[in-house]
Specification:
heterodimer; A: 440 residues; 17% strand; B: 314 residues; alpha/beta; TIM Barrel; two-stranded antiparallel sheet; 40% helix; 14% strand; binds cobalamin; binds iron/sulfur cluster
């Protein structure tokens, strides 16, 4: 559990020598509690205090990083609900392939190349899980590694086989699946040898706590829990309990990220299973199906759930050029909420027609939200048009408003003398047709 | 060492709301539907059972909509020309409740006739939405409420600008109210206070916290619902109402569902994408405490129903 400023103060020298740059030890302690300074700034902390402070600063859910050509992180979460602060490390989305699958390399290549843009951000799949199922596992892992640079999860219960496969992944941090209490020793040894993380399976939290201690005793710190659960209800319960134990009860013994297999009850249910895992605390989500439409929906959901509630995603206000506009191109006005901006910009771009897009500072709000909040009114729009000196860019002084704020046109005519105010369609999808028909 | 699982014990609980009245109860519905009654967060059976499972409503319109995705046109076909037929098909598709959305073009007489035809075509409880302009809502919903006295419809969508007349007629005629506020805990409370102050008992109100689609603001709705549910469980009586959400309406507005052409290749197959869009929007809201989920596509209905079954199975 994180210590309060006062608790930290008690562990400091209390001499107020000011060397840390703060007038008192208490002031320094308060900054430490707020995680705004490093303990190292005080040269006089005792070793015993250092140890205590380090323990209290350790996150309730251990941060696990899988590494190859790219990285995936899980853990380090501090709240049960996103509105309490935010969720930090988006669950890695992995696609599972089987060693015996003759199409393995092609499947991996397809998913590996997948890239989709959502409001200006490029999303991809995070990695692959290779499962030993009777085929040549080591060769399969090699084929996968030759095809993708992303981190891997290796699924097998045969330690020597895993050892050979892991030897192919030198310098990486892979994830080994999975150790149970009856068989953990050889796998823990492998995890240590290959600097990999290890998934643990158990059927109760007592058993998990026992197993994590044992694995730790073998020198392995990076663990991931497979909580099991035969349906959505069971997973939700277990996942919630695990999160609570770590965050509310400070149970370090189960304070590890979790892994969830979304395809376990068939492809029909996979989207929903993965969606629940994303919303409800999974650290890694393994898919059996890769299709672009499924990946896109899940990647967007993940982004939405993990967006910091304090900061709406926004774009820089300004005048944006789409399809190389010139002095005769139309001027469209919108807000600086990312979703709004990209809905409009993508449509204009898709139309192939050039335009100027004036993005007003609406504090990151959508058209109607900003309008209702008084952040997208005639005054602000006029200010943007003048501030970005739109008049110097075009011959015809004409701007197009979003259809949802048609009511602003009268007032805007007054604010922007000499400008023609046109009302566009309500939805961005209708912009291309509008530009073709109404703006010639 | 034995690990004790932390359990929440809440002072508050969610009220139960019943829609639809059977003949024994003064209406004509084949059965009524009760939602709400939760005493803990969604589906945490180790703390308390889910007393009433969330239900699915399918949205139909009084006239064939011209702005719906062609994918919806494909599945509902000619039934979209006749609300009674459409309602029947919706019942076959698994709806527990029908939502009938009226349009600005409906006259009060037409609206009453259409509502009656839908009631005759199906035994399910009915929710009726006005077209969303205060004056027109009043013009249509008042005669409907009177003509269906005792049926225990849910009337909507009540917002701060139009609630008075709708609440008054719901009170006089034994109906329930759908109270919508834009994604804000305090605004939701405030509207509930205004409505109960008029004398409508709280067990005749459902909250509609407003929903954004996946990719279009779902995170706001999701978190507001979690906050409303937490406030209710902590004992804030003006948030202790079950919630109705409209992921169908929102998801099918999104380009991802609506159109198939001219979209990035990475968006994949249109039909599956559209179903995922509606289903995932709905499932996220189910996880955050929705009690009535209003959908549009039968395949999403099937998937969300299965989701709920799995979540309530202990
Ligand atoms: C998410 C949301 C919020 C989020 C904010 C999200 C954000 N960063 O903006 C939160 C929860 C914070 C919020 C707050 C409020 N909200 Co709000 N919110 C919504 C919601 C659900 C979705 C908005 C959204 O993101 N839409 C998606 C974007 C892409 O849409 P858009 O910006 O309009 O862009 C589209 C079109 O306008 C068009 N377009 C855009 N630019 C241009 C330009 C041109 C030239 C053209 C032609 C077209 C075009 O293309 C886009 C795609 O089609 C809507 C209801 C709904 N489902 O629509 C309510 C809604 C906008 N909110 C509303 C209100 C009242 C508020 C609040 C005032 C209430 C409150 N809670 O206190 C506050 C105001 C904020 C404040 N005081 O801080 C009302 C507005 C009512 C009205 N008609 O004026 C709405 C409509 C809800 C309702 N039915 O009552 N809200
Ligand atoms: S350097 Fe250490 S001892 Fe000196 S004031 Fe800062 S915290 Fe106190």
């Amino acid at each position: 559990m994180a210590l309060s400023g006062i608790q930290i103060y008690k562990l400091l020298p209390q001499t107020n020598c000011k060397e840390c740059g703060f007038p008192t030890c208490l002031a320094f302690a308060m900054k430490l509690a707020a995680k705004q300074v490093e303990l190292g700034s005080c040269p006089y902390v005792s070793d015993a205090s250092k140890k205590q402070l380090a323990e209290s600063a350790a996150p309730p859910i251990r941060l696990i990083t899988l590494k190859a050509g790219s990285e995936v992180k899980a853990g380090n979460e501090v709240v049960m609900f996103r509105h309490e602060k935010t969720f930090y490390n988006k669950p890695g989305l992995f696609v599972r392939v089987k060693a015996s699958d003759p199409e393995l390399a092609a499947k991996v290549a397809k998913a590996d190349a997948y890239k989709v843009n959502y409001v200006g951000m490029d999303f991809t799949i995070d990695g692959f899980a290779v499962e030993a199922d009777g085929g040549d596992f080591v060769r399969a892992v090699k084929a996968v590694r030759d095809t993708t640079k992303r981190p891997l999860i290796l699924i097998a219960d045969d330690a020597p086989l895993l050892d050979s496969a892991l030897s192919l992944l030198a310098g990486e941090s892979a994830l080994i699946y999975a150790a149970e209490s009856s068989s953990y020793e050889p796998l823990a040894d492998l995890a240590k040898k290959h600097k990999s993380a290890l998934v643990l399976k158990a059927d109760s939290f007592d058993a998990f706590a026992d197993l994590t201690q044992k694995v730790q005793a073998k020198g392995v710190e990076d663990m991931v829990l497979d909580l099991g659960g035969k349906n959505l209800g069971e997973w939700l319960t277990r996942s919630t309990q695990a999160r609570r134990l770590a965050i509310k009860a400070n149970q370090r013994a189960v304070g590890y990220p979790t892994i969830f297999f979304a395809g376990q009850n068939g492809p029909e249910k996979e989207a929903v299973y993965a969606a629940q895992a994303i919303a409800k605390y999974a650290g890694f989500v393994v898919l059996d199906t890769f299709t672009p439409e499924l990946a896109y929906a899940l990647l967007v959901l993940r982004e939405n759930i993990y967006t910091d509630p304090q900061k709406p995603i926004q774009v820089q206000p300004g005048i944006y050029e789409i399809n190389s506009p010139n002095a005769d191109s139309p001027v469209l006005v919108t807000t600086n909420f990312s979703i709004t901006y990209f809905s409009v910009a993508n449509e204009v771009e898709g139309s192939g027609l050039p335009a100027w897009l004036v993005v007003t500072d609406a504090e990151g709000m959508s058209v109607l939200t900003a309008w209702a909040a008084g952040k997208f009114d005639a005054e602000r729009i006029a200010k943007a048009i003048k501030g970005f000196d739109v008049a110097s860019k075009v011959n015809k002084k004409r701007i197009v408003l979003p259809g949802h704020v048609a009511v602003l046109s009268g007032e805007l005519e007054e604010e922007l003398a000499g400008w023609e105010i046109r009302v566009g369609p309500r939805e961005a999808v209708d912009i291309p047709a509008f530009m073709k028909q109404a703006l010639n | 060492m034995p690990i004790e699982i932390p359990k929440d014990k809440w002072p508050g609980s969610i009220k139960k709301v019943t829609l639809g009245a059977t003949s024994a109860e003064g209406g004509t519905r084949a059965k009524s539907v009760t939602v709400g009654g939760e005493t803990t967060l969604p589906y945490l059976h180790f703390e308390a059972p889910t007393p009433n499972k969330p239900v699915i409503a399918i949205e139909i319109k009084s006239h064939r909509p011209d702005d719906w995705s062609p994918l919806l046109g494909e599945v509902w076909g000619d039934a979209m020309n006749d609300p009674a037929q459409w309602a029947k098909k919706a019942e076959e598709a698994g709806a527990d409740i029908i939502v009938l959305a009226l349009t600005l073009a409906d006259s009060p007489e037409d609206a009453v006739r259409i509502v009656k035809s839908v009631l005759a075509a199906t035994g399910l409880p009915l929710i009726v939405w006005g077209p969303g302009q205060a004056e027109k809502d009043n013009d249509l919903l008042v005669p409907i409420a009177e003509a269906t006295k005792g049926e225990k419809l849910m009337l909507g969508i009540c917002e701060d600008k139009n609630y008075r007349t709708i609440v008054a007629t719901a009170m006089a005629n034994g109906h329930v109210i759908q109270a919508r506020t834009p994604m804000d805990v305090n605004l939701a409370k405030q509207l509930n206070i205004l409505i109960t102050d008029m004398g409508l008992p709280a067990d005749r109100i459902m909250m509609d916290p407003t929903t954004g689609a996946l990719g279009y603001g779902i995170e706001y709705g999701y978190s507001v619902m979690e906050r409303l549910r937490l406030a209710a469980l902590q004992g804030d009586s003006m948030t202790q109402l079950p919630m109705i959400v409209t992921p169908g309406f929102e998801a099918w507005k999104a380009k991802e569902s609506k159109v198939g052409d001219g979209v990035p290749e990475a968006w994949g197959d249109w039909k599956f994408r559209a179903i995922h869009w509606e289903t995932l929007t709905a499932v996220a809201l189910v996880e955050s405490g929705a009690d009535i989920i209003v959908l549009r596509h039968p395949e999403s209905v099937k998937r969300v129903k299965e989701t709920i079954e799995e979540l309530i199975a202990v």
